[in-house]
Amino acid sequence: MTARSDAGPVGSPRTTLAVSALGTLLVLVAFTAPLSTLNVTATALDADVSGRTWILSSMSIGLAAALLSAGTISDDFGRRRTLTIGLLVIAVGSIVGVLVPDVLVFVLTRVLVGVGGAAVIASSLGIIAHTFPPGPQRAAASGVWGASVGAGIAIGPLLSALLEKADSWHDAYWALAAASILLAVAAERLVPESRTEHPRGLDLPGALLFAGGIATLLAGLVEGRQGWAEPVVIMLLVASVVLLAAFVAVEHRSATSMLDLSLLRSPAFGAATLAAVAIGAGAIALMSYMAGFLGAALGISAMGSALMLFAWSGTSVVTALLARRIPASVSGRVQLAVGLLGVAIGLAALTGIDENSGWVRFLPGLLFAGIATGMVNANLGREAVASVPAGRGGMGSGANNTARYLGSAVGVTIVAVIGARPGPGSAVEDLIAGWNVAAVVTAVISALGGLVVFALHRRATAAARADVTAAGV
């Protein structure tokens, strides 16, 4: 036995899965809510260009900085407890962010919501790994969890656009806070507590160094979009390198390391982690930029942009739910590789846009990329848990989702820099030219990710066969 359940509520596996998936859905709703109402939100908060960038990027900092620590904490101190606390943190951050009409406060509360979201995502996959044994049951549950990621991305922009149109941009955050509180109560009543039988203990120095290194890296990337030669950007990036190097040194010597660095030599862990980076730097990065681009370059409304984003994310939900029907003989790593290559094809189809392009021109690429993204989402969670020692599902989830949001942050920065590149044409022509290049770049990132994941799969398969042969001899 590698994990234990404590006394407490005894919910059915379906109920446990529903609460875990809904928690992840709420995090993604929070993550994408500002996409369709950025202009209204920025105007209300009197945010300049830099402030707008921070409104979109701040939650990523909280997520990426806290995910790995949250995974370890959930495994050691209780997955349901971590889930509940994370949901309450999301509620508090959402409420304070709309009560205080100041861009700095809003950005800081978005970082706080990211920290709460990290606790929810890391613990939810840990709960699923504990509840469902490896095999078809876990595959199906992982598909539902993957669908919740796509559903959250789909619902966030639509919800905020609808509520802003009906009343105020504040309403989406009030709704998010209310839903988070209700789900926290449901979790306490319906989800059994579980934790690992062999806790490693919280590696506080490692946690602080990693969080500081990731936070300064992402802050440097955000500020760098305004100019890479600025002293503050250079200081942030240098600080990030120093802190992350110190983290690696501490983890090598720590008896309670929050991340077993030997996992970096595992092809299975490498494939899952790289796939997460590639989906973040590819599809998520381009889609995060798309809503603003559609309005600025093509004059498409916030609701229209949200509906076009739904064509991608909604399709991914359906695919993630259907992925459990793929034969078990097709391994999760192969599905990740095929999914990333499919994402590359879909993103490549989004290039060649001109001033007369309407929503119909985008639809084939969005749908194809959505199908492929759903396949990736359905398998990422399962492979993240399978690639770490039994009972450390929270750590595996934390590491994998950290990679996803790091990839997203890097990808969004690349896309933003390409999109803002001045050219010989008008402002609109330059935006369209930048989009066309960004679509190709993100497609290449996705394709390279798929090819490397497939290579790692072949390496892992060869190593497994060698072990079997050696055992037979």
Automatic annotation (TrEMBL):
<feature type="transmembrane region" description="Helical">
    <location>
        <begin position="139"/>
        <end position="160"/>
    </location>
</feature>
<dbReference type="InterPro" id="IPR020846">
    <property type="entry name" value="MFS_dom"/>
</dbReference>
<feature type="transmembrane region" description="Helical">
    <location>
        <begin position="271"/>
        <end position="291"/>
    </location>
</feature>
<feature type="transmembrane region" description="Helical">
    <location>
        <begin position="432"/>
        <end position="456"/>
    </location>
</feature>
<protein>
    <submittedName>
        <fullName>MFS transporter</fullName>
    </submittedName>
</protein>
<feature type="transmembrane region" description="Helical">
    <location>
        <begin position="111"/>
        <end position="132"/>
    </location>
</feature>
<keyword id="KW-0472">Membrane</keyword>
<feature type="transmembrane region" description="Helical">
    <location>
        <begin position="402"/>
        <end position="420"/>
    </location>
</feature>
<feature type="transmembrane region" description="Helical">
    <location>
        <begin position="202"/>
        <end position="222"/>
    </location>
</feature>
<dbReference type="InterPro" id="IPR011701">
    <property type="entry name" value="MFS"/>
</dbReference>
<feature type="transmembrane region" description="Helical">
    <location>
        <begin position="297"/>
        <end position="322"/>
    </location>
</feature>
<feature type="transmembrane region" description="Helical">
    <location>
        <begin position="54"/>
        <end position="73"/>
    </location>
</feature>
<feature type="transmembrane region" description="Helical">
    <location>
        <begin position="334"/>
        <end position="353"/>
    </location>
</feature>
<dbReference type="Pfam" id="PF07690">
    <property type="entry name" value="MFS_1"/>
</dbReference>
<keyword id="KW-0812">Transmembrane</keyword>
<dbReference type="InterPro" id="IPR036259">
    <property type="entry name" value="MFS_trans_sf"/>
</dbReference>
<feature type="transmembrane region" description="Helical">
    <location>
        <begin position="172"/>
        <end position="190"/>
    </location>
</feature>
<feature type="domain" description="Major facilitator superfamily (MFS) profile">
    <location>
        <begin position="16"/>
        <end position="461"/>
    </location>
</feature>
<keyword id="KW-1133">Transmembrane helix</keyword>
<feature type="transmembrane region" description="Helical">
    <location>
        <begin position="85"/>
        <end position="105"/>
    </location>
</feature>
<feature type="transmembrane region" description="Helical">
    <location>
        <begin position="359"/>
        <end position="381"/>
    </location>
</feature>
<feature type="transmembrane region" description="Helical">
    <location>
        <begin position="228"/>
        <end position="250"/>
    </location>
</feature>
